[in-house]
Design goal:
This protein has 50 residues and is an all-alpha fold. It has helices spanning 2-20, 23-43. The chain crosses the membrane at residues 12-36.
Length: 50
């Protein structure tokens, strides 16, 4: 019974991974890009806020 549960959960995990496997790098890249943009804004605030 436990082995069957493991097989089913592994199947679900791999199915989700194959579905999101293509989108994952895109999401990571977007997150990194947004993070960098926010850092740049923090380091160089526009003159309007000073």
């Amino acid at each position: 019974m436990k082995a069957l549960k493991t097989i089913i959960s592994n199947g679900i995990v791999s199915a989700v991974f194959t579905k999101t496997g293509v989108a994952l790098p895109v999401i990571l890249a977007l997150t990194a890009y947004i993070g960098l943009r926010l850092k740049t804004v923090d380091l160089h605030p526009p003159s309007a806020t000073i």
